[in-house]
């Protein structure tokens, strides 16, 4: 195991600041637990305000140093390309670290690592194509243009479910534009970010451009989000935490991107291919143990096909192979944390006491020694109404609430009756209906005859209490840059000092 954690000393990590691993000023540490067996496997340093101060200062200083501020855009692109290459070389190791940290399937983490270099190559290609505009302003002898500049120091706070993937959605465009960053990974899944930081150093980025501080959200994360030296916060996590982060940042008028939770509707119409639709529902809510922000956790089945699709879904749920996430045959691993498992089990109890009926699953999975880990059966609830907590709250586990609907108008009202607006899916052969749904649904991403399909090239981000701002695609460049207007008067004439020049 020790060869996985190359930059831990005796299974303990320091912070990564100014391209060095350093100890916490308090020397306090936190333990990371492998959710497959409940065993501790490494420690991270626990940052306090002083440590955050240190990291933000490092990032602020790096922002104006010539080895970063004055290099060409093409050179920044080369750095990004090199980072992508190094992820490719170390992908297997990084994937294994993440699986041991969050319990997601090794196959899934390997797939994430295999595609991650592409994100860096994409933004590497974009680094020297970031442009402003020339804008005519109805004034003779005036040249008016915009410059797209770095915002400054970006704080990136990420959750545990896909640590490097989510971190990269904010990091790659931030670096392409020329920002410096301070990253705060989730307390339980910090190792991959720290190992990745060492690769960034190997890629040749100057000290202070990328810094990683680890620790608790309510201390380290909080200190980062309220630090006046920040210029932007990219937060990915739960809606309640996002509200706190946005409030803290607002005290300094620091803008944020908020990639928050969801309770996404996943819809099957009577004309859909039932087999593909049932597979889509499984992919939407049981993959990754339902620990994805885009989980299709409210499933709406048209009344006429309700029984048929439900039966198919129940059979699929019962046949899901639960087990060790390191095993290639496993389809559902443990939940990432003991607390997460307890939260999911408590929601199953709430669902039952609110009148929901368990169609399949509903228990912890404890056979074959799994009682030491945090496994929960894929669970299908019926007899759910949209006002029940299992239909309203983000559970972040393998639990789907199935509900019937009559027709399109009945569906849209029900599907939009949520505080969230992250994603939605629809299964139908009728393109007109699919397009009407896509227009009427309040969700940042709409999938038609597919689900949980994402690309670094395409903007991603939610509406309503799922957040604001976009990651990925050219939108990532816009999010992590600022626009400056420059006005050049080449008339050679002096102006009236007391009148604003509107013409
Ligand atoms: P949390 O909101 O609990 O944590 C996210 C990050 O914020 C962690 O690094 C956490 O640190 C930190 N944090 C916690 N409290 C604070 C605070 N007061 N100030 C600053 N930072 C803080 O989310 P989870 O880790 O539980 O992740 C699951 C959530 O993330 C779900 O709601 C999910 O929907 C959402 N998510 C959204 C995505 C999107 O793109 N929209 C993608 C993936 C997940 P610590 O680990 O120490 O608590």
Description of the molecule:
Strand 17 (423-427), helix 14 and strand 18 form a beta-alpha-beta unit. By secondary structure, the protein is of the alpha/beta class. The N and C termini lie far apart (70 Å). The model has no long low-confidence stretch (mean pLDDT 96). It is built from 15 helices and 21 strands. The chain is globular and about 80 Å long. Bound molecules: NADPH dihydro-nicotinamide-adenine-dinucleotide phosphate. NADPH dihydro-nicotinamide-adenine-dinucleotide phosphate binds next to helix 7 and helix 8.
Secondary structure layout:
Blueprint: E1 15-17, E2 20-22, E3 29-34, E4 39-45, H1 49-64, H2 66-69, H3 73-102, H4 106-127, E5 142-150, E6 153-157, H5 163-177, E7 180-184, H6 191-202, E8 210-212, H7 217-225, E9 232-236, H8 239-250, E10 256-259, E11 265-268, H9 274-285, E12 298-302, H10 306-318, H11 338-353, E13 357-360, E14 379-382, H12 389-392, E15 399-405, H13 408-416, E16 420-421, E17 423-427, H14 431-440, E18 445-448, E19 463-464, E20 467-468, H15 473-479, E21 481-489
Parallel strand pairs: 6-7, 6-9, 7-8, 9-10, 11-12, 11-17, 12-15, 14-15, 17-18
Antiparallel strand pairs: 1-2, 3-4, 5-21, 10-20, 13-14, 16-19
Helix pairs in contact: 1-7, 3-4, 3-5, 3-6, 4-5, 9-10
Bound molecules: NADPH dihydro-nicotinamide-adenine-dinucleotide phosphate (NDP).
The site of NADPH dihydro-nicotinamide-adenine-dinucleotide phosphate has 31 residues, from helix 7 and helix 8.
């Amino acid at each position: 195991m020790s060869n996985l954690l190359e930059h831990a000393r005796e299974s303990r990590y320091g912070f990564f600041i100014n391209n060095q691993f350093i100890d916490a000023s308090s020397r306090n540490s936190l333990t990371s637990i492998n959710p497959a067996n409940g065993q501790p496997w490494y420690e991270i340093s626990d940052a306090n305000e002083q440590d955050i101060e240190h990291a933000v200062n490092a990032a602020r200083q790096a922002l104006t140093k010539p080895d970063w501020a004055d290099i060409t855009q093409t050179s920044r692109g080369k750095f990004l390309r090199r980072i992508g290459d190094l992820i490719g070389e170390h992908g297997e190791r990084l994937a294994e670290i993440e699986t041991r940290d969050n319990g997601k399937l090794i196959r899934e983490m390997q797939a994430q690592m295999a595609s991650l270099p592409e994100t860096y190559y994409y933004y590497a290609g974009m680094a020297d194509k970031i442009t402003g505009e020339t804008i005519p302003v109805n004034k003779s002898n005036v040249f008016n243009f915009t410059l797209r500049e770095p915002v400054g120091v970006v704080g990136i706070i990420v959750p545990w479910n896909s640590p490097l993937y989510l971190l990269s959605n904010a990091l790659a465009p931030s670096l392409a534009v020329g920002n410096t960053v301070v990253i705060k990974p989730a307390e339980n899944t910090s190792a991959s970010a720290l190992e990745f930081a060492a690769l960034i150093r190997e890629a040749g980025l100057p000290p202070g451009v990328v810094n990683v501080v680890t620790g608790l959200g309510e201390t380290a994360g909080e200190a980062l989000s309220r630090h006046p030296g920040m210029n932007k916060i990219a937060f990915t996590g739960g809606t309640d935490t996002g509200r706190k982060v946005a409030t803290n940042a607002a005290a300094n008028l620091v803008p944020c991107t908020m990639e928050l939770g969801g309770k996404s509707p996943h819809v099957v119409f009577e004309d859909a291919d039932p087999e593909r639709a049932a597979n889509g529902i499984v992919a939407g809510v049981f993959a990754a143990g339902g620990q994805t922000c885009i989980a299709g956790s409210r499933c709406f089945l048209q009344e006429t096909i309700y029984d048929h699709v439900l039966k198919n879904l129940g059979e699929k749920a019962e046949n899901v192979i639960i087990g060790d996430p390191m095993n290639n045959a496993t389809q559902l691993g443990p939940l990432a944390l003991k607390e997460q498992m307890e939260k999911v089990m408590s929601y199953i109890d709430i669902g039952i006491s609110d009148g929901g009926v368990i169609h399949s699953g509903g228990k912890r999975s404890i056979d074959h020694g799994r009682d030491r880990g945090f496994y929960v059966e894929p669970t299908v609830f019926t007899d759910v109404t949209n006002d029940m907590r299992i239909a309203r709250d983000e559970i972040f586990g393998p639990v789907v609430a199935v509900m019937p609907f009559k027709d399109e108008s009945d569906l849209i009202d029900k599907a939009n009756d949520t505080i969230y607006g992250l994603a939605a899916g629809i299964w139908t052969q009728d393109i007109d209906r699919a397009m009407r749904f896509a227009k009427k649904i309040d969700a940042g991403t709409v999938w038609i005859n597919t689900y949980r399909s994402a690309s670094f090239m395409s903007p991603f981000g939610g509406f309503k209490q799922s957040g604001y701002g976009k990651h990925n695609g050219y939108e990532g460049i816009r999010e992590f840059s600022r626009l400056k207007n420059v006005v050049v008067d080449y008339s050679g004439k002096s102006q009236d000092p007391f009148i604003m020049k509107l013409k």
